[in-house]
Structures are given as C-alpha cells and as structure tokens.
Amino acid sequence: MDKVTLNANKRVIVGRKVKQLRKEGLIPANIFGKKVKSQSVSVVEKELSSVFSKVGETGLVELMLEKTAHPVLIHNVSYHSVTGLPLHVDFFQVDLKEKVQTRVPLEFVGEAPAVKDKLGVLLHIISEVEIEALPADLPEKLEVDISRLALVGDTMKVSELKVSDKIKILSDANLEFIKVAPLVSKEAEQMAKEAAETKAAAVAQAAASDAAGGKPGEGEGGAPSAPASTAPSTSTAPKKE
User: Fold this and answer.
1) pLDDT tens, residue by residue, 11-49
2) Are 134 and 73 in contact (CB under 8 A)?
3) Smallest Cα–Cα separation from 75: which of 94, 90, 62, 87?
4) Does the pLDDT of residue 124 top 60, yes or no?
5) Closest by CA position to 123, among listed 156, 162, 172, 160
C-alpha cells in the first residue's frame, strides 16, 4: 500500500468546548501508545474520513504533527448517532520494529456454486480475524475465495486462510467463518405453513370424533340417537268371529 499521510495540529481545547472544533470542521483526537506521552490533537474531518476509507483500522498512517511524522493506526472512531459524522478518534502510535496485534476484515471474492445453483444461502459467521504482524506488513483486508462452496453444509475455517509468512493469525484455527445453509424460499415457507395448518385441523377433528364416540346413546357429533319408532303396526288385525 502507498504511504498515507494525514495532517494534525496540537489541541488546547478540551472537554465540552470541543463542540466548537466540530463546528469548524475539525475532529478532536488523541495520540497514544507504548512509551508514548499522550497528546491532544485535531484533524480536518474531511481529510480523516478520506484516509479512514482507504486504510481502515489496519493501514499504517503517517500522522504529521509540527513537521514530525508519527506512524499510527486509526483506532476507536466514534460517530454521531444522527449525522454519522466522526466525533472523536484515537491514533495509536506504533514502533515500526515491533509487532502489533489487530483485527482485519475478511473480504469474500468469487461465487459459491451452491448459491449460483440455488441450493443454499451463505451464512457469514464472523467477518474479521485477529492477526499479528509488523505495522508495515499489516494487510488492509484478507481476501477469501468462496468458489469451492458447492453443497449445503460446506464450510470454511480460519485454518484455510492464506496469508504471507510475515503475518500470524491468532484466531482459533478451527473456527468456521462462512457456511452454506439450506435454502428456504417463500414458496417453501408457505407450503410448510399450510402443511402445519392441515395437520392441526386433522388432529382437532380426530379429537372431536373420539369424544363423540365415547358416549352411548349419542350419534355423530354427540347428538342424541333418535328413539325407536312407536308408529302402529300396519299388519291387518284378525276379524272377530
């Protein structure tokens, strides 16, 4: 990655007064790190957003403060809940000769045959992994080719990630980060719902029939049986002699 530079200025305004900085398009920030004295600084909001969109939290940034270059990583960016604009940012100053631990995002490339053939859908279990490397060797992201995911149940684990020998993956090697799950279409959901309703109706009808059949003297549906006919016999009575 090309060297990325961001300008900063010392900041004397602190506390609630930093609202004034934001009105001027500046973002309050701090520089911190191992064996580094914390410094309050400010950066231009538009410049910060541009740089952060390029490097994320893993790209090395050359923060220029009073003509001195500070190698930093962008950490802990907080945003306004309504406007989405950054409110504050921390810059972690690193030693270029000392390895650091951080998390990098996974970027999926290619097309999974299971999805292409409409056999299943992809479940993204985790979206980033923890790694260790020298600041200059930190990748912006790790690309993952998913073209081998052909069947329902196929998965990929952390152990399958390919990185250079300058990078050490710290996340559990057996951890699954993507999986092909069964495809559930709207038609399948509707069919399952109708089948469940039909089964429930059948069970209810069977229960009603059992209840009706268990009481003597009642006909279908529990109605009393009709009494025996009392109509007079139609046979001819014998004539009197």
Assistant:
1) 988 888 888 999 999 999 999 998 889 999 999 999 999
2) no
3) 90
4) yes
5) 156
Among left, alpha and beta (phi > 0; psi -120 to 50; other), residue 51 is alpha
Three-class SS string for the chain?
Answer: CCCEEEEEEECCCCHHHHHHHHHCCEEEEEEEECCEEEEEEEEEHHHHHHHHHHHCCCCCEEEEECCEEEEEEEEEEEECCCCCCEEEEEEEECCCCCCEEEEEEEEEECCCHHHHCCCEEEEECCCEEEEEECHHHCCCCEEEECCCCCCCCCEEEHHHCCCCCCCEECCCCCCEEEEEEECCCHHHHHHHHHHHHHHHHHHHHHHHHHHHHCCCCECHHHCECCCCCCCCCCCCCCCCC
Over residues 82-103, the mean pLDDT reads 93
